[in-house]
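## Example pair
The file below holds two records. Each record gives the amino-acid sequence first, followed by its structure token line.
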Amino acid sequence: MKIVLNTSPIIFLSKIDTLKHLTDCIDEVYVSSGVVEELNGYILPSFINVQSISRESQAYVKGALGQLHNGELEAMMLAQEIGADYVVLDDLLARRKAHNYYNLDVV
């Protein structure tokens, strides 16, 4: 199974010391470069793959910023680009947009 994480789930899972347990049930974990920037220097575990989104997706994210943040939009775009099984978002509006507009499975 392949998932893409947004910023807040990483922070929340880290605070309760459970981020490391993702490898027990997930094969591949990804974050976008924008999510890494939002983490403000937090060092990600080595099992989390950092991947930039395409130039086309970067242009879309710039144009779509508003109610959703850069990290949320980049997580959605990355999930589409790599064919992720799920995108993990904590924000309800982001979850709805990911599901309704991008046909992504959301956790």
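Second record, same layout:
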Amino acid sequence: MAKKKNLDLEQGKLIVFSAPSGSGKTTIVRHLLKQKELNLEFSISATSREKRGDEIDGKDYYFLSLKEFKSNIKNNAFLEWEEVYRDNFYGTLNSEVERIWAKGKHVIFDIDVSGGLRIKRKFPEQTLAIFVKPPSIDELKIRLKKRKTENIDKINMRVAKASAELATAPLFDCVIVNNDLEEALNEAYHKVDSFLNENK
């Protein structure tokens, strides 16, 4: 992949949604993507992990081998990346943001806390970083159990990580508490709409 250090930021804005797993950020992002007037497109992350279930390369994630992922890091091909668990990398390729901007759209991310903050730090003016908060850690655990996608050890690991992630909430531009989903969807819509229409 060609060496790429800087993105041309004249083209669009970046909308970041971060949250502990189970907070509902994916539901909010999907809702916003359906609002055509916002002109958003989803940023597909790259990962070095194996596919799960019926995941599709280029739709759910860009699935890269560990070697490919590390080579892209070396070539500065990522806007942000992180080793979430050992040899388990996730990141956003510069080419993905450029692909979306080339269509004249704004980029929306459903991304972990560290990645979200890295994007905000790199592009403070172009980025709206929103943290989605669960009503409580107990409620988060209930939601993760209801998914029935992971065993109790994995759930406990996510809950432990959530406590550390919740401490980063003040670093984001705004926090949405997802207690009532309808209210959270409305709040997210208004915050994103007003950010995209700034300076018009």
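Notes on the second record: The chain is about 40% helix and 20% strand. The first helix runs from residue 25 to 33.
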